[in-house]
Amino acid sequence: MAGTRRTLIRKEEGIFAYRVAGGERFAVRMEYRGQDVRKFGFGTISKARHWRDTRKGRALEGRLFPEQEARRQEEALKQRDAETEQQRRDAEAAAVVTLKAYGETFMKAKRAAGLKHTTIKRYDSILRIHLTPAFGALPLAEVTRGKVRELVSSLSEDGRKPKTIKNVLLCLSALFTEALEDGHVQHNPALKTSKLIKTGKCGEEVDTFSHEEECRVLQTTKEKYPHYYPFILLLFRTGMREGEAVALRPEDLDLRKRYVWVQRNFTAGQLSNTPKSRQKRKVDLAHDLVAVLRDYLVVREAEAMLNERTAEEWLFTTPGGDMIRSNNFRDRVWKPLLRAAGIPYRWIHATRHAFASRMILSGANVVYVQRQLGHASIQLTVDTYTHWLKESERGQNLEVDRLSTPFGDGVGTLPGTLNGVKTHDIERNEEKWGE
């Protein structure tokens, strides 16, 4: 009867006997997970032993009460799945790298790679001014080709030059190339920049000086800034970059053989032991430039002796003997010089374009022009100066005419056209076909 107090008599481990109205019965008592578990009602001690022994095995396996264990296991699985899902979400969140965050990693890698300081400075400026404001908060994988096109359109609408837009895309492409190698993205949305930028014909965006303007600049320099005349003449006559000319030393010159070794570059306030292209080169010097440089060196040496000081380390300096710095030269000399000459402002790099265009128009070999300029490839020279290359070809004989033999055995001509044909017949045919 429920609630009846039973007197248990221990028979052996875990088995107890008790008296009921129908006779003797047996019970099993066990401890399971800190709880006292009892089972009553066995008619014989053998049945009680069997239940005890089987339940011991189940207890060791955690299966003493299957229904309860099933619920517990289900709850444990749910808990584990919830924890796993949370861990997955946390891992995904940690794996999501924004462009701004990866930009910092990218710049550290580039600095460690030993890139030129000008390249590092350009990348850093592009990230700060253009890429971070546009894509900084986005995960790398969400920077799509479409979004890159939108950036290009925005830059174009803001009046950015194609070259500036191209530099932005090249920086973005370099960043995604690194991210691809690091496994953060599956593709590079900034590849093939030429398909993203709408430009006009090659060469049209190059700003240069006409021959008449060049003469006015040089004449005005002689009159108002004579100290800088050799420096500016060298820029016009060699096409050297400003930083390369600033970093020249007197010993780089060989006026007898008429060339100068370009071995260094000074830009953004830092001196590099290689030119921009990383390749040292020999630049030829025109006769008039050699004459000016020879007189310049003589005067400079005489002034140094007169003032009892050692000659300057650099070939060209300020009147005070300091190295020429781009911003200072631009504001104090170049801008006032162009104003005095009555010429609209052009950056000093236009002297380089003036040299290249004048060389090409005079019929110079493009490979020679490339070597003088220090371009990394002939393709860069051709792409930059296509307009002048086309201009130089006008009015010239076609190169294929070299294959024609006006007199001979008639090879390459129709039968009878050059042998036995009267002159007036040829003239009449030329008039007919507009030859």
Would you spell out the secondary-structure blueprint of this structure?
Layout: E1 9-12, E2 15-20, E3 23-32, E4 35-42, H1 45-61, H2 66-95, H3 99-112, H4 117-135, H5 145-157, H6 162-181, H7 211-224, H8 229-238, H9 242-246, E5 253-254, E6 259-262, E7 265-267, E8 270-272, E9 281-284, H10 287-306, H11 326-341, H12 350-361, H13 366-373, H14 378-384, H15 386-393, H16 423-433
Antiparallel strand pairs: 1-2, 2-3, 3-4, 5-6, 6-9, 7-8
Helix pairs in contact: 3-4, 4-6, 7-8, 7-11, 8-10, 8-12, 13-14
Structure characterization notes:
By secondary structure, the chain is an alpha+beta fold. Helix content is 51%, strand content 10%. The protein is built from 16 helices and 9 strands. The protein has helices at 45-61, 66-95, 99-112, 117-135, 145-157, 162-181, 211-224, 229-238, 242-246, 287-306, 326-341, 350-361, 366-373, 378-384, 386-393, 423-433, and strands at residues 9-12, 15-20, 23-32, 35-42, 253-254, 259-262, 265-267, 270-272, 281-284. A 4-stranded antiparallel β-sheet has the order 1-2-3-4, covered by helices on one side. Strands 5-6-9 form a 3-stranded antiparallel β-sheet. A hairpin with a 2-residue loop joins strand 1 and strand 2. Helix 4 packs across helix 6, helix 7 (211-224) runs antiparallel to helix 8 (229-238) and helix 13 (366-373) packs across helix 14. It is rod-shaped and about 135 Å long. Mean pLDDT is 80; it is low at 200-204 and 407-435.
